[in-house]
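So, can you check this record?

>
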Amino acid sequence: MAESMDLGRMDGSVLLFGGAYSNLQALQAMLRIREELQIPPERCIHTGDVVAYCGQPLESTELLRSSGVWCLMGNCEESVGLAKADCGCGFPEDSACNTFSLNWYSHVTEQLKDHQELRAWMAGLPRRMFFQLAGRRMAVVHGSPLDISDFVWPSSSDQDLEKRMDAIDCDGVVCGHSGIPFCRLLEGDKRGRGARLWLNAGVIGMPANDGTARSWYALLTPRGRDVEISIRPFDYDTESAVESIAAHSKLLRVYGNALQTGIWPSHDILPIEEQMHSGVALEPQQLLWASQRQRSAGWLLVAAAATAAVAAAALANFQMVLAKVNPMAIFTPNSPHPLFLQQHSPKPAPTPRLSAKELSADGMRVLFLLLLLQGCVATSNDTSEDVNFTDVNFTGNETEDDTSSTTSSTVTTSWTSSTGTTTSETSTTSTGTSSTVTSSTATSSTATSSTATSSTATSTSATTSITFTTSNTTTTETTTSSTYTLTQTTRTITLSSTTTTLTNTTTTTTETLTSTFTGSWYRVRLTILLDLIVGNAYALAEDANARLAARAPTKKLWGVK
């Protein structure tokens, strides 16, 4: 029996599934999906428990063994291969699950008793597997790194997962056993690793206790230095699987019912959270596991901004020194040597300097910009869902008359998720009344972008164009205020405008803001913020020039006119 096996580096998508559970029909469907995805067997891993609840343990074992897929030892393979008295599932002795397991385990041993080669194959499977993907070291275990029959649930806390991950040297753990798929990113460890992944790839031989007959598998796809994690369902010939259970008179029918209803026959081993979610259909999951290099990009930008601020301050002080040598001199590449200026220039006037109070205020402004950048980096770590914002529209209509005015605004937001589901939200507000309409105004803007949030894997071209057009025609003096609010996951942008019109006056105002960037949505957000920081830094330098110019009008510092 091999304790562990290193599969080396994987150069493409890795298919992960587990728990065939003697369900021949589900295993056949899974292998067909592998062919459709064009993933070779050497990049496919079964996380253990080829035999269990269903009716065809012999056929399922022979098919999986001959498929070429990498197979891990689960508690079922361990028990059958070593001829143990029970399945070793970890069920409490007084639980219904334990009672049911004694029944199907007896069926499995009866079916395989004359196939010593299959039992020997099970006994020789590795307990752990390792592979490299996109620069990360991945570990595959059955229950957890602590125990082959350890149950880890979606409700398990981060502390529970971190305790188990600390027991093994890896960046990510793939497991099975518990039967409910989920994935989660955890904080880095003491070894200096970045965010770590815990992934339960799900099982194919039984439903996920979600009220549907679907089976589940997971796919790891490298996207450059990032990894995209997908948890996907599939359907198969459930009725044939149920018939295979019914064909054996000694085999309990409770698991055949579970294949049809999608509900497990007993919940006595489930935590209360999983019991409360029984029968609630699971949704496919997708998560982007960003590289440590990208994750640390925000701190690098902070360091770069701080360095630029220090360099700017040093340049200003250097120019002050030159100004002291010769108040009329401005340093350029063609300027005379400072010693020449010192020898041939009259004694300079006192050099104006910024006070300590002013320098402190400027420093606070720079600090604010750095904190703003770090805030964007922190919010960009929200990678729990893949969402493509496709269209955001804002429309406002205003109507005025001789005696009263009515203002209404409608905000419509629509987006498309990774599963293809389109969602739209509309909010309408209206104030005032109007009896006679004499004029009307309309304000509209459209922001359209096709970008991927940090949970997607591919880079896209992000183009954002916002146009504001205001046209007012009235017969009386009117003041109109319009506010447009764009709310995203982590921030709200509000644009406000006020227009005052006079009798028989038509005012049309059009403003267009366009920003184009190619890359991930994470980088788009950082680019927009860097534009803001550069603009504020320029304004800071301009303000410092103005204050110094007031004290010495002939001097130009910071290189800003």
